[in-house]
Amino acid sequence: MGFQVYQTEGFEEPWWFNDDWHEDVVSVYTTDSIEEASKKYAQETLQLNKLFPKYRSRVAGMAAFWQPGELSWCEPCANDEQVYHSLVIFEDNQPLSDNMVAELTALLNQYPGLNDQEI
Asked: Measured between alpha carbons, how far is 92 from 94 in angstroms, rounded to an integer?
């Protein structure tokens, strides 16, 4: 199966992984190599960083971007909630292992400007 780079749009940052998180997927890129997945993730991260002023990441391979005040009605919450535009890398449709996160971190450090983002 390889690696997947998911882009999501929804009310939750990507590290929450609620049961229905797949409903928030707006695109998925699939590749057989972590190198290609890291390249796609870096490209998408830089692009989203240009579009949204806020950024947060808790671990390599998971990032959330947002525009404060970009709200949408959340039916289960019965409230307007912040919308997040997120990226996450999976391996074989599962979150990355600690070893793979370490490898991904080393790969992402190669991309100029990627680590210069404000958090």
From this structure: 6
The answer to whether 28 and 6 have CB atoms below 8 angstroms apart is: yes
**Could you write out the DSSP letters of every residue in 26-69?**
EEEEEES-HHHHHHHHHHHHHHHHHH-SEEEEEETTEEEEE-TT
pTM higher than 0.85, yes or no? yes
- Helices 98-108 and 34-51: crossing angle in degrees, nearest 10, is 60
* Predicted local distance difference test score (pLDDT) of residue 54: 95
- Mean pLDDT of the residues in the chain: 90
| C-alpha distances out from residue 60 to 12, 47, 52, 72, Å | 17, 17, 19, 28
Tell me if 74 sits within 8 A of 81, measured CB to CB: yes
pLDDT tens digits along 3-37: 999 999 999 898 887 788 888 999 999 999 999 99
9 and 28 Cβ atoms separated by less than 8 Å:
no
Q: How many CB atoms lie within 10 A of CB 10?
A: 22
